Amino acid sequence: xxxxxxxxxxxxxxxxxxxxxxxxxxxxxxxxxxxxxxxxxxxxxxxxxxxxxxxxxxxxxxxxxxxxxxxxxxxxxxxxxxxxxxxxxxxxxxxxxxxxxxxxxxxxxxxxxxxxxxxxxxxxxxxxxxxxxxxxxxxxxxxxxxxxxxxxxxxxxxxxxxxxxxxxxxxxxxxxxxxxxxxxxxxxxxxxxxxxxxxxxxxxxxxxxxxxxxxxxxxxxxxxxxxxxxxxxxxxxxxxxxxxxxxxxxxxxxxxxxxxxxxxxxxxxxxxxxxxxxxxxxxxxxxxxxxxxxxxxxxxxxxxxxxxxxxxxxxxxxxxxxxxxxxxxxxxxxxxxxxxxxxxxxxxxxxxxxxxxxxxxxxxxxxxxxxxxxxxxxxxxxxxxxxxxxxxxxxxxxxxxxxxxxxxxxxxxxxxxxxxxxxxxxxxxxxxxxxxxxxxxxxxxxxxxxxxxxxxxxxxxxxxxxxxxxxxxxxxxxxxxxxxxxxxxxxxxxxxxxxxxxxxxxxxxxxxxxxxxxxxxxxxxxxxxxxxxxxxxxxxxxxxxxxxxxxxxxxxxxxxxxxxxxxxxxxxxxxxxxxxxxxxxxxxxxxx
Length: 592
Ligand code: GLC
Description:
Layout: H1 9-20, H2 25-31, E1 33-36, H3 42-48, E2 52-54, H4 66-81, E3 90-93, H5 111-117, H6 120-136, E4 141-142, H7 166-181, E5 191-192, E6 194-197, H8 216-220, E7 234-235, H9 239-246, H10 248-255, E8 260-263, E9 267-268, E10 271-272, H11 277-287, E11 293-295, H12 308-318, E12 323-324, H13 329-341, H14 347-363, H15 383-396, E13 398-402, E14 414-418, H16 425-429, H17 449-456, E15 460-463, E16 473-481, H18 499-509, E17 512-520, E18 536-539, H19 549-554, E19 568-569, E20 582-584
Parallel strand pairs: 1-2, 1-12, 2-3, 3-4, 4-5, 6-8, 7-9, 8-11, 14-15, 14-16, 16-17, 17-18
Antiparallel strand pairs: 9-10, 13-18, 19-20
The structure holds alpha-D-glucopyranose.
Alpha-D-glucopyranose is lined by residues 56-57, 94, 143, 195, 297-298, 487.
């Protein structure tokens, strides 16, 4: 199904071609350039005809308010309107589980939870609500959905994937694209960026390259790139496997109207996706007939070759249309201009790239955007969006085990609560929240799981600490959590509960009649060692800002309906192992 466009794609394409014919080479290259917002000024937008600006993870204005977001974005857009042709600028963000960089925005469950909910209509509604909050801040491009099909949960981006199963990812990815884009030309129409093309979730352990010519402090200011072991590695399998496992979600997303796709850092058959003419042009643009544009990932071209000019020529000639530079945009512009002058990039390729970018901008009707605050400005973090997020939390919980202890009676006389995941919004939200890597603590507005327990329980609720003297509680609730992470920072060979978590479970076990374990995580954790000590176990995933909704299921206000969209392994040796044992298989989830 084509994007819901007021104007047909063929008419839009004719307009785009006519506009390209009026453009100078510098105006064309400017449209192909995407720069991080701290690396340029609105004046630079005018001088270099910059077509797009982005906020990377945590790229927030100071103060981080909805109003300041809107003013920051509008300043760049206003400058673009003053260029010779007035081609509008498009601003992009990662709003991967709500407008997650913005303080006070609604934070929805990460995709692993939505996969467990298994409700495409819900995902479509989440896409629509996210679009309204994103567009309210002047942003019309969201680098989502990830349609990764993660095969190894040791990957730090597992939670960004809906499932290890391609069919479920097809369904959810397409639903999100339809919801987010809606009527693209309307003020709340937001361009999806389907990512990361292709095979990002199927890489082999320890297959990640390093690039001694790239300053890691520059790339991600974490400086520890070499420790990554799966993210951006080599995708396992041949063309048949790629087409069966990783490609279908892109076909579904294009049918749903996607007009942007982000390339993957990973490699296929030894070639970086960003350099692959086969993948970017022959498969995507010719075979799948993709009419939109491909954007690179953050500094991904720098990884292609020590010689930046060689890297740029390789990627653009392969089919890359817009380059997420994100820092030294002048180097990129000068390099590309010289490559065209020297005949290393044919002008026809430049014209095709710009045409594709303009097709998306025309579909969004950016020329008619108002600089005024929209009527929906106050819907950022609105009650109706938070209610939708609560529904998503309720539907995403997976009841793994239950010896009849759940649902709890509100009349339960004494409940002992423990664990760092119980009352910490940062743990609940995980990575890509306010900051790129996420952060523990009260990082944004919302409610905690403990808030929900206290709302429902009529008896005593005590917060356990090691000095607690109390014993003989009716029920113990222990919430173990993963410390927030994003991308390769989450790559790990250890998903076991740590000693403190195991000790806490044992301490609470000794004090309660029934014990319920809540797991706040971006993927299955190894719980085999403790499961016999637990009367019930719930996978809560990363529920987001509306954590109190976890308690709605605990107390039977809403039923458990979630089903695992990933295999839950019994031990680390079972992961990415065809003969591996599953503690719980895909599709497992008790009702009640
Ligand atoms: C990151 C991620 C990508 C994101 C982009 C912009 O490195 O790989 O998912 O959209 O950069 O933040």
